Target: Glucoamylase
Amino acid sequence: MDKHLYQTGLIGNCAYLAHVHKNTNIEWLCWPRFDSSFMFGGLLDRQKGGEFSILPQGEYTSYQYYLENTNILCTEIECESGKYRVTDFAPRFYQYERYFKPLMLVRKVEVLSGSPRICVTCKPVRCYGKEQFEALRGSSHVEYVGEDEKIRLTTNVPINYVFDHQEFTLNETKYLVLTYGKHLEAPLVSTMESFLRETIMYWRTWIKRTSIAQFHQEVVIRSALVLKIHQFEDTGAVIAASTTSLPEFPGSGRNWDYRYCWMRDTYYILTALNHIGHFSEMENYFNYITDISFNELNRYQPLYGVTGKKQLIEKELELDGYLGNKPVRIGNQAYEHIQNDIYGQVLISVLPLYTDHRFIFSERKDSARVVEYLLKKIEFTIDEKDAGIWEFRNFANIHCYTNLFQWAGCMAAAKMARTIGNADLEQRALALRDRAAAHIESCYNEERQVYTHAAGSDHLDASTLQLIMMGYLDPASEKARKHLEALEKELKTPKGLFYRYLHADDFGKPKATFLVCAFWYVEALACVGRIEEAQEEFSKLLQYSNHLMLFSEDVDEETGSQWGNFPQAYSHVGLMNAAYRIAMKLDKPSFA
Model:
């Protein structure tokens, strides 16, 4: 099998995300929200997915890159008649005391050499490709109308060329501006040039205000930019990925909708944001988690919609699927699962409200009630079997990882209780901590000197690397060293990749490695003092990006192919946290 890499880049403005293929086509764009139907979905179906491309006739070559330290994407096309560049961006900048982030896709097309002949094709679709928009010709725009939805393409390309998909000679800079809802009424050229300048300035200023060490700084910057635009700023939710149904491995049937916010990611996301010093994103995410917390009487769901929606009913669509991989799913049945690590995740996530002095502690109202409320959620579930971090659909166990986060959550609760001077609450938290620790120890295999994935199980799981990173095991201890060695021996590949696990699940044995686990492994190496190995393994993992330093969820160990939803925020967060851990261990002067 040839090496498979995703051929798209991602743009966004914290209101929407879009994938731009190296062939200039908008392969994926969901409006008006991250989890809405696609307007362009060629990623999943060439016929029903619509198209928005700017292409020459005949053969051409393509080169794609980001403007440095931005989420603005350039695609250069060279053909027989000349060369041109398409600059794609989602406007974002500060204006009128708030961030301007419209549902607007801007495409600037400029000549680089010769007189290229090009054709603009714009065919959006509705309801996941079930319906077409009616195209209405205007004087300088095409309006696409469908029931209660209306989008408009405003352009200085002769409108008949666009409407009739007619080839023309590109002899001056052209602009194509696609908008949802409110249409562009301002002058086209000067307004778009202003938007481009302001958006470039916004992203570069955002990066200048980011704390990133010198260790592989360029790739960490790109990961930070990726993470930023996966936050739905209106509510603060951070989604796992912008796509659905990109297979974990060809023919596996493991095709899931990742356009939602997983509670299990909370700790890692907040850690990454804290490391790079972006407080407002953390605070916005806190608000999202807090709103969900006080809207749940007993249980958290493993995941929620970007607005906190609970019912994410899973459906299959009549689409061809990515490279023919079916089924294509929207919604995610995992919202019904029992996944008990998330209570600890939430407790850890609210800890900064009590210990981080950037928050004003006097603003915390009913502090004891808040801690008790969250602690009760662990008390309610601490002895219960669950689906675990990997969301097994037909298996329930006492999972080591679940109880690790309950242990850590209780530690956080005890710390918060001490901060507010509530000794009774502190004692309750510590007692629950000890119960969680007992469950963790029930997963320890004395003979093999390793923690298995669940009580009574012989199977190993990469999630137990977190025992070392989260301090349950002393990184300097023999127990931590032996545990890491056992995981390496069974789950690590020769090229530095890591399987989540190798035992059969609901869909058989996994065939692809899970990239974030490899970054966890790098972190664990750094924790136990194997710092040179950590650096080497980190560098190895960089080869598994696409042409834009974007990482997928899964990687085939044999070919290095990218699979799974893309780009995967979880993978980029793992990269950021691993790089930070190594940088802190190195701690050397910049000139060294």
